[in-house]
Amino acid sequence: MNQHEAHASPWWERFHFQLNNVLVDDSDLSYFGAIYELKYAHPCFYQSSPHPPRYAIAFRGTLITNFTRYEDMKLNMRCVFAKLEESLRFRKAFEAVWNTVVTVGPANVWIAGHSLGAAIAMLAGKNMAKSRYHLKTYLFNPPFISVLPIEQMIKNETLTDGVRIAGSFMTAGIAAAMNVHGEETEEDLFNVLSEWMPHLFVNPSDPICSEFIGYFQHREKMDEMGVGKLERIATKFSFGSLVSGAIGIDMEPLHIVPTAYMTVNVSPSEDFRQAHGIVQWWQPHLPCQSNLYKFKTL
User: Considering only CA atoms, which of 268, 247, 256 is closest in space to residue 194?
Assistant: First the structure.
């Protein structure tokens, strides 16, 4: 049985899609993505919003097998050090996204990914947004790279808020001292990104993605405290990116997303495998909480 046959096809056929192409990693020859093309959609679908896409491009997460483990873990480390964009897999993924968008237009292309695949889709979506192409993007358990995973380490809400507030003041202070926030090109670029609204699906029990919850909720709390302007400065940077910038290394954190529609799975998870797995998002009556977090440019 080859890789294509190993994956059940009914789910995409049920939604009237056909497999148009598969994306193969040149390093380990594994399938890391697929391009699906809409064969047919009932006319009533086009009366709803959003309309179904002509193409959907999806990227898989980490596979722990003898054939994929080494390359996938190497890419995971690239995510940690904000070097995913330099990988051959990402370049191939972005080329597929770019070529499809140029051919049929951004309104006709959706991208999605889980875990490592979500990192690839997020970076592709960010880069497309920088070119003013705002793609519908669906990210399941996307990685949030943080030196201090506050959501997992600190369970006391008051203490958590205190740590985040202190972190925001420190980050904004360092940015001010380095005159980073005075660079108009960086501010303009961040404002451009704020027009793109990816959909994030996260689980509070998953240490890989749970930090997104505190990241967005903290921004709202800072606004309520009347220090939203300071937080908007801190939001554009991470402590790691400021330190790397000070020593001349360009490092744009993958997880910094100005605007997002975030859905949180509020049902209990038995273990990490369940909390991080893609299967949880297939449940028909999954209890979730969804919120739109918009970056304020003023």
Answer: 256
pLDDT recorded at residue 253: 73
* Torsion angle (degrees, nearest 10) of CA 160, 231, 140, 145: -70
How is residue 264 written in tokens?
A: 């949180």
Read off the tokens for 75: 């890419």
Reading the block at residue 119, the tokens are: 């990192």
Beta strand 109-114 with 288-293 is: unpaired
Q: pLDDT band at residue 1, thresholds of 50, 70 and 90? A: very low
Surface-to-core class of residue 112, CB atoms within 10 Å of its CB (0-12 exposed, 13-18 middle, 19+ buried): buried
pLDDT in tens, 116-155: 999 999 999 999 999 999 999 999 999 997 655 555 555 6
The amino acid at 117: G
Cα–Cα distance for residue pair 189/236, rounded to 1 Å: 10
Asked if 168 and 230 touch (Cβ cutoff 8 Å), the reply is yes
> How many angstroms separate the CA atoms of 244 and 254, rounded?
14
Element at 148 (helix H, strand E): none
Cα distance between residue 291 and residue 173, in whole Å: 29
Name the one residue in this structure whose structure tokens are 């990402």: 90
Q: Are strands 136-140 and 109-114 parallel, antiparallel or unpaired?
A: parallel
- Sheet with 136-140, strands from edge to edge, namely 17-24, 31-38, 55-59, 109-114, 136-140, 199-202, 260-265, 288-293
